[in-house]
Design goal:
There is one protein chain. The chain is of the alpha+beta class and about 160 residues long. About 40% of the residues lie in helices and about 15% in strands. The chain has six helices and four strands; from the N terminus they run βαβαβαβααα. A four-stranded antiparallel beta sheet has the order 2-3-1-4. α1 packs antiparallel against α3. It is flat, with a radius of gyration of 17 Å.
Length: about 160
């Protein structure tokens, strides 16, 4: 199971994220073969500024409001027994929601969702902003008029969903 969330690079937010992760471990510690980890990936403002100076980006990544960049937090949860799926998914989504709640409390939540790590319950294309999503849909219509990649290729996120 994977999911993604982005937050402002803020010490209070990162402490809250760390606490939420620590508290989540108790809910899955009894699961045989569990691997429970999150990764924090910095997106420095310098990177975001370079993109903005070139006209922005289709991902809709904004400059951070505090000037400290963003942090992408993505999860990687694996387990051995299929019968544990409900427990692990529930705990994983609770952790995601706890991180979002903490970031909102500090005003550091960012709606951007990395498509490479998004859970199927998340909508990464919506997180790019309506103008960028419309642009991607127009590109899809132009270069894939039969909508092969949208309708005939299984899995993945679809820009028209």
């Amino acid at each position: 199971m994977t999911w993604a969330v982005s937050v402002e690079n803020d010490l209070q937010t990162l402490h809250a994220l760390y606490r939420a992760f620590g508290l989540s471990v108790a809910s899955i510690a009894h699961i045989a073969g569990i691997s429970w980890s999150i990764t924090l990936e910095p997106l420095p403002d310098l990177f975001l500024q370079a993109s903005a100076s070139q006209g922005g980006n289709v991902l809709g990544l904004p400059l951070s409001s505090q000037g400290n960049g963003l942090i992408l937090c993505d999860s990687s949860f694996t387990w051995t027994n299929e019968e544990d799926t409900t427990i692990v998914r529930s705990a994983g989504l609770k952790l995601l929601n706890d991180i979002i709640k903490g970031a909102r409390q500090f005003g550091t939540y960012n709606p951007w969702i990395d498509i490479n790590h998004a859970d199927f319950s998340q909508d990464p294309f919506a997180s790019y902003g309506s103008a960028n999503k419309a642009f991607l849909q127009a590109v899809s219509r132009r270069y894939d008029p039969a909508q092969v990649f949208q309708k005939q290729v299984p899995g993945g996120f679809k820009v028209f969903a």
